[in-house]
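Q: Sequence in, structure out?
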Amino acid sequence: MGTGRTDEFRKDAVRIALTSGLTRRQVADDLGVGLSTLNKWVTAHRDTDVVSPEDRELARENEQLRRENRILKEERDILKKPPVLRQPKAMRLRFVEEQLGAFPIERLCRIMNVSPRGLRAFRSRPASRRQRMDTVILAHIKEQSRLSLGSYGRPRMTEELKEAGVDVGHRRVGRLMRENGIAVERTRKFKATTDSDHTFNIAPNLLDRDFRAAGPNQKWAGDISYIWTREGWLYLAVILDLHSRRVIGWAVSNRMKRDLAIRALKMAIAFRSPPKGCIFHSDRGSQYCSHDYQKILRQHGFKVSMSGKGNCYDNAAVETFFKTIKAELIWRWSWVTRRHDEMAIFEYINGFYNPRRRHSALGWKGPVAFERKVA
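A: Exactly. Output:
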């Protein structure tokens, strides 16, 4: 390389190092020279006219813009966090303390409208009795949320905590759940399951939307719903005892045939051995109106009751169960196989819904606990 060309290359290298905003290491790597060599060139040419005053001014402006852009990006990232700007000062200070490792302390304090001095006082101040109690209650809330499959909102969570011996009000529970992102998510996907276009006989509506029962085995209700899996639809038939809302019979199938409803009915009969005169209520679907299904009901002395045409409110108790299991279990996951879904339903009904889940209609008792209390 000639001397003239070498001098020109050095000048260009120095100009890039002083005006590009890149680090010396980046410039050296891009140009294919050693870092120490580049530093010597910069030192030798810093006070010469290699970089014009206009270039120096432009470099300073670029650096200022890069610094401002970095600050704006950090502030944007801070504001992406859970909203706390409208929260009490103690919460804003706690947020600043939690984010100290990720952002500069001065910027955090300015955005949260607190002072560094106040932050130092907050960090050195011992936790108050209320704050310590909040920590204990939050630990209980997280545990109960786990046990309830993340399905409990504020009212049921409050009752669960009281049952566990934690004396707390629903406002405090709601605040702690809200501050810590503990919430219930619900979505839905629709598919019709009732086929009322048939020639079977229709029974009158004996229930007439009275879903109360003084004791077990006085009123039963059944229905069929659907669950989407990657293998296709899975159909779920259930029977509830309206006294306690307990699931006493259920069955699943990949096809919505009459034997699905019959299997759920046979399970309930084997489990409960109901007395004659028990009301069995359903919709007008062909599965429930079929000769085979009605024959079983007659053999065991049931009084048959059916909803009005196209009126889901006439079987609201079972519809509520389906909404509950979908919100608390089905809609939360993407089900790969029907078998996987079936096992999850089994665990939900027998491990949570019947023995543990609290119902407002039962005075916040679970179905099993309610039956024991009445007995």
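The first strand starts at residue 219 and ends at 229.
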